[in-house]
TrEMBL record, chain A:
<keyword id="KW-0812">Transmembrane</keyword>
<dbReference type="InterPro" id="IPR003594">
    <property type="entry name" value="HATPase_dom"/>
</dbReference>
<dbReference type="InterPro" id="IPR036890">
    <property type="entry name" value="HATPase_C_sf"/>
</dbReference>
<dbReference type="InterPro" id="IPR050428">
    <property type="entry name" value="TCS_sensor_his_kinase"/>
</dbReference>
<feature type="compositionally biased region" description="Low complexity">
    <location>
        <begin position="456"/>
        <end position="472"/>
    </location>
</feature>
<feature type="transmembrane region" description="Helical">
    <location>
        <begin position="18"/>
        <end position="37"/>
    </location>
</feature>
<feature type="compositionally biased region" description="Basic and acidic residues">
    <location>
        <begin position="503"/>
        <end position="518"/>
    </location>
</feature>
<feature type="transmembrane region" description="Helical">
    <location>
        <begin position="43"/>
        <end position="64"/>
    </location>
</feature>
<feature type="region of interest" description="Disordered">
    <location>
        <begin position="440"/>
        <end position="518"/>
    </location>
</feature>
TrEMBL record, chain B:
<dbReference type="Pfam" id="PF05331">
    <property type="entry name" value="DUF742"/>
</dbReference>
<dbReference type="InterPro" id="IPR036390">
    <property type="entry name" value="WH_DNA-bd_sf"/>
</dbReference>
<protein>
    <submittedName>
        <fullName>DUF742 domain-containing protein</fullName>
    </submittedName>
</protein>
<dbReference type="InterPro" id="IPR007995">
    <property type="entry name" value="DUF742"/>
</dbReference>
Length: 518, 123
């Protein structure tokens, strides 16, 4: 093969010109040979020369034709290569465009809540730059978007499940806190029981804070609502009551403002997390000091501990966590050993427009400053300064000087236990009904009254009487076993929802179902 | 007894109050309590220091005239055990004084007990 191609000529040289030289050469050689040989050999040599000339002509023509075909093929090949190169370049450019421009834009649009089909329609079909995207690229884009969309939906539902569970825990904790308060009222005169109740109360509050944290990290707002404004002092004591080491917290010189009802819970929670951090990362014998002063934008709550100072690296990490939480954190980012505190505070600060900063404290530890914006505060009088002191501290009188009748405390409701109902007592009801206080008939020598049981029949006889009474009761009907088929009717009415209890059950189908599966 | 217990006023403060009672008593460990009875009379002997928590300040304000522990507990809407802890602190600081109630006879006589017992049986 020739490595150097001749420059392509526009018109090919005719065969005659190419074949002329070998033909003339061969003819000359043949003529010379014929002239040189003897007279009698001349015709034979001339014939041979003619044959050779023909052969040379044929071979040369064939060779020339082969060369020309090869050249043509090569040219076409080069043309094809160039075409393919253009194609691959175009492909590469397209995939780069897909990855660099199209996909981020599509994910952005997806994040704004558009469906994958909408995104593909808006980005590819409506855009003249991307309209030439081949079907495969379009399918790829669509598949990627759908996978991302599915993934996002799954994550959201998992988070929602977390929040849901946390909310249920919160509900239980709130109910238990209310019941504990009631029990504390009831057993207030018994110091041992009372102290035990306080301990349980404290544990319940800690559980409640954890559930609140999960709710906040799941992107929901804290669940509990407070009806009216609450003084800052009570809010901070509420925060204290949700941490383990509340005894080490000292409240100093708090500015006299109240927090609006809607903002009470987030502020309590944020302060509780900061107090928890402060007490947890300082030596147990040191105190944590809390002050609240008025600043331009609201009220600054300062929490100082006397622990080891935060190293620059640790401070940077905590601040990063705060900043990250303000951008948006989810439960998946927390890792295996979650340090929820800062993330929760950051999230709450972002939700409610509070500012948090961590600085070196004059006591050597950390000083956390939480700036509560003015929108969360009010100077209106809060209903009570602290525990019932204020409005309810003295008996209230009306204009005429008569005592105002306070609403009586509602009778305590004991909820039915959820377990199986206890079997009826073994002693027959007949005996129990006829029971009345025993008469005192004699006195012991010590002067104490002695009683005699009035139930004189023996136990076996009472059982026999009861066995006799049972069929009689059933014969009267009413409280016996229901007719076969009746229970299925009851089930059907329950299932169709005409019953009250079934309506109740329908309202919380999820909780019922879960209860059954547990 | 249960009837009397149930007639007590509802804890109106707790509905709108985020603080729990153990924060008031300053600990769930068995707190020290002076030997105070429900009918012990409490009289204030000084002004509340500015650093006192609002409950103690309120106690001192109310005890300007002698009041029984039961009354204090009812007005403050706090259980008896919490009030005794707060009063113990005030007693230690000599800000209040406790006066013993009227002394009852050491042992009630037997006829009274019998009368009560018979009365109960007639119910």
């Amino acid at each position: 093969m020739v490595s150097v191609e001749p420059p392509p000529t526009g018109r090919e040289v005719p065969y005659v010109r190419v074949l002329l030289l070998p033909a003339v050469l061969m003819a000359a050689v043949a003529a010379a040979a014929a002239a040189l040989v003897d007279e009698e050999a001349r015709p034979a040599v001339a014939v041979c020369g003619a044959v050779c000339l023909l052969l040379v002509l044929a071979v040369a023509a064939q060779a020339v034709r082969g060369f020309r075909t090869a050249r043509r093929l090569r040219a076409r090949h080069a043309h094809q290569i160039a075409f393919l190169k253009r194609r691959t370049d175009a492909h590469e450019e397209q995939s780069v465009r897909l990855g660099r421009d199209l996909l981020p834009e599509a994910l952005l649009r997806l994040g704004r809540g558009e469906s994958p089909a909408e995104v593909v329609g808006a980005l590819v079909d409506a855009d003249p730059v991307h309209r030439d995207l081949p079907m495969a690229g379009r399918a790829l884009l669509r598949d990627v978007l759908e996978i991302v969309d599915n993934e996002r939906a799954m994550r959201e539902s998992a988070q929602l499940a977390f929040v849901n569970i946390a909310r249920r825990v919160q509900a239980i904790v709130h109910r238990q806190a209310a019941e504990l308060r009631e029990m504390e009222e009831d057993h207030g005169r018994n110091p041992e029981v009372f102290d035990d109740l306080l301990r349980i109360d404290h544990g319940t509050a800690l559980i409640g804070r954890l559930a609140d944290s999960v709710t906040v990290l799941g992107g929901a707002r804290p669940g509990r609502q407070w009806p009216g404004p609450v003084p800052l002092f009570s809010v901070l004591r509420g925060a204290m009551s949700r941490i383990l080491d509340y005894q080490r917290v000292d409240l100093h010189s708090l500015v006299d403002v109240a927090v609006l009802g809607t903002s009470v819970e987030p502020l309590i929670h944020a302060c509780a997390e900061l107090l928890d951090n402060a007490t947890r990362y300082s030596p147990p014998q040191t105190r944590v000091h809390v002050t609240a002063v008025e600043v331009q934008t609201g009220v600054a709550v300062e929490i100082e501990d006397g622990g080891v100072s935060l190293s620059e690296e640790a401070r940077a990490r905590a601040e990063r966590m705060l900043a990250q939480a303000q951008v948006g954190i989810d439960l998946n980012d927390l890792g295996e050993t979650p340090r929820l505190g800062m993330a929760v505070v950051g999230r709450l600060a972002q939700m409610y427009g509070m500012q948090v900063s961590l600085r070196q404290s004059a006591y050597g530890g950390v000083r956390a400053v939480l700036v509560v914006p003015r929108e969360m505060l009010t100077t209106a009088p809060a209903p009570a300064l602290a525990h019932g002191i204020g409005a309810a501290a003295v008996p209230r009188v009306n204009e005429e000087g008569r005592l105002i009748e306070e609403p009586a405390r509602p009778a305590k409701r004991h909820r039915q236990p959820t377990g199986p109902i206890a079997s009826p007592p073994l002693v027959p009801a007949v005996v129990a009904e006829s029971f009345d206080p025993p008469q005192i008939e004699e006195w012991t020598p010590n002067g104490l009254p002695q009683r005699r049981s009035r139930v004189r029949s023996s136990y076996t006889r009472r059982l026999a009487e009861r066995a006799q009474a049972a069929p009689a009761r059933e014969a009267r009907g009413g409280d016996g076993e229901p007719e076969p088929g009746l229970w299925i009717e009851a089930f059907m009415t329950g299932a169709s929802g005409s019953d009250e209890t079934s309506a109740e059950g329908r309202r919380h189908p999820a909780s019922e179902e879960e209860g059954n599966h547990q | 007894m249960t009837g009397a217990r149930r007639e007590r006023r509802a804890p109106t403060g707790s509905a709108a109050n985020p603080e729990r009672l153990y924060v008031l008593t300053g600990g769930t460990e068995a707190a020290e309590r002076a030997a105070l009875d429900l009918v012990t009379l409490i009289v204030a002997r000084g002004e509340a220091p500015p650093t006192a928590p609002p409950e103690q300040a309120a106690l001192l304000r109310m005890c300007a005239t002698p009041l029984s522990v039961a009354e204090l507990s009812a007005y403050l809407n706090l259980p008896f055990s919490v009030v005794t802890v707060l009063l113990t602190e005030l007693l230690a600081a000599r800000l209040v004084e406790a006066r013993a109630p009227v002394v009852r006879s050491a042992l009630p006589d037997r006829t009274l007990l019998e009368a009560v017992m018979h009365g109960l049986q007639q119910l």
